[in-house]
Write a structure and sequence with these properties.
Elements lengths: L3 E6 L3 H17 L6 E7 L3 H11 L3 E3 L2 H5 L6 E4 L6 H10 L3 E5 L6 H14 L3 E4 L6 H11 L6 E10 L15 H4 L3 H17 L2 E9 L4 E3 L7 E3 L5 E8 L4 E7 L7 E9 L2 E6 L6 E5 L14 E3 L19 H18 L7 H20 L3 E2 L5
Helix pairs in contact: 1-9, 4-5, 5-10, 6-8, 8-10
The structure holds nicotinamide-adenine-dinucleotide (NAD).
């Protein structure tokens, strides 16, 4: 693969994971260590930028991302900043001719998302969303099976993404709990992932009826502070969805799932079969085939676990039988983008895919506020 220079913009929780993943790509695909050159990093403050550069092992750091965009040795910028800065940075990066790899959710709202897609399309740079859950081998296999019609006519689906990350009322306000920075709460943070997976597997959304709720309405303004500030985003979102092909399903999203660490799941039921996946047990895709003989005594019927484990096409290491993990999904999402740049193809998932997710989230918010079904077309 041609060598590519990467610049990180944002190096917080997920920026660090992205760097770990870039470092792993040469091992996964038998590439030379310098195939991906992590050239520099921009954060919001000089001290954090310098510290990040030391950790990454790169020589360039800045608190002004424009300086990073001005460098000729950077081909790709990887945007890992809070959501309210996505539009500004993506637009500047596109204008600077950099290929763009951007974290989810795409934007703060649909109008921003539309402007982003338009600005990037105009410049012709390559771009890709970090919808990394698509890159569990089990989900790639689910996509193959759905495209091949394995489940037949889809009857219904269920999706959920639960974490327990906000059950402690003393957890202070952070940008994720502020609408002016995050754009939305659990719906944007976790919901964007499960909604992308359902869109990936089932196609376009048509309409939604949702109820969003904030369970802890005030939190300390800082760690240990007595002063409290309002939480103005959702902690949970319950949705009923009708897809463009008529299929009905529901999705539950929560950051208040006591005891659940990080669990994204879906189930799809059809007249020929069913498939289901849980990210807490990501080695397997469970499938049920109605065509299996049901006799004698149940024959061969029942959910089977396909050993998708760590089957990535062309990967050299580690052995396929090792369990896949979250960092590996990021590495694969990045690798597919870098390969797309080198091969001159568009990246996937696209920013337009990110916009589809943005639209259904906006429809869910409007539905919750107005207490009615909202067609996705209404928020475009
Ligand atoms: N795909 C995933 O699994 C996943 C997981 C977590 C977060 N995310 C997404 O990643 C993004 C970042 O989340 P996080 O948890 O890493 O946030 P964070 O608060 O941990 O880190 C944010 C980083 O952005 C930097 N930053 C802020 N404003 C900046 C600016 N103007 N210029 C340069 N740097 C700036 C900060 O200095 C910090 O380094 C969000 O969009 C979030 O939704 C995705």
């Amino acid at each position: 693969m041609r060598k590519l220079g990467v610049g990180m913009i944002g190096y917080g929780g997920i920026g660090r994971v992205h760097v770990m993943a870039y470092r792993n790509i040469p091992y996964h695909y038998g590439l030379t260590a310098d195939t991906i050159n992590l050239v520099g990093v921009a954060t919001s403050r000089s001290e954090t930028a310098q510290k990040a550069a030391q950790e990454i092992g790169c020589h360039f750091w800045t608190a002004d991302y424009h300086e990073l965009l001005a460098r000729d040795d950077i081909d790709v910028v990887d945007i890992c900043v809070p959501n309210h800065k996505h539009e500004e940075i993506i637009t500047a990066a596109a204008a600077a001719g950099k290929h763009i790899y951007c974290e989810k959710p795409l934007a703060m709202d649909v109008a921003e998302g539309q402007r982003i897609v338009e600005a990037v399309e105009k410049t012709g740079v390559k771009s890709q969303m970090t919808f990394n859950f698509r890159f569990f081998p089990a989900i790639s296999r689910a996509k193959q099976l759905m495209d091949a019609g394995f489940v037949g006519r889809v009857f219904s689906f269920r999706g959920r993404y639960f974490r327990s990350s906000y059950i402690d009322p003393q957890k202070p306000l952070s940008w994720r709990l502020r609408k002016d920075i995050s754009g939305g709460g659990a719906l944007f943070d976790l919901g964007s992932h499960i909604l992308d997976i359902l869109y990936f597997l089932l196609g376009d959304f048509d309409r939604v009826q949702a109820t969003l709720d904030t369970l802890i309405k005030e939190r300390p303004v800082a760690k240990g502070a007595v002063e409290k500030g309002a939480v103005d985003v959702d902690d949970i979102a319950l949705m009923q969805l009708r897809m463009a092909n008529g299929t009905l399903g529901n999705v539950e999203i929560s950051r208040m799932g006591t005891g659940v660490t990080n669990d994204m799941q879906f189930e799809i039921y059809g007249d020929q079969g069913a498939i289901r996946f849980r990210s807490e047990d990501p080695s397997w895709l469970e499938v049920y085939d109605v065509r299996d003989p049901g006799q004698p005594l149940g024959g061969m019927r029942g959910f089977r676990k396909l050993e998708t484990v760590q089957h990535y096409d062309g990967a050299k290491s580690p052995d396929w039988s090792m369990s896949p993990n979250f960092v590996r999904t990021h590495a694969e999402c990045q690798y597919q983008f870098l390969k797309a740049i080198v091969d001159g193809r568009p990246g996937s998932p696209t920013l337009s895919d990110g916009l589809k997710v943005q639209e259904v989230m906006a429809a869910a918010e409007r539905s919750s506020a107005e207490g009615r079904w909202v067609a996705v077309a209404e928020v475009r």
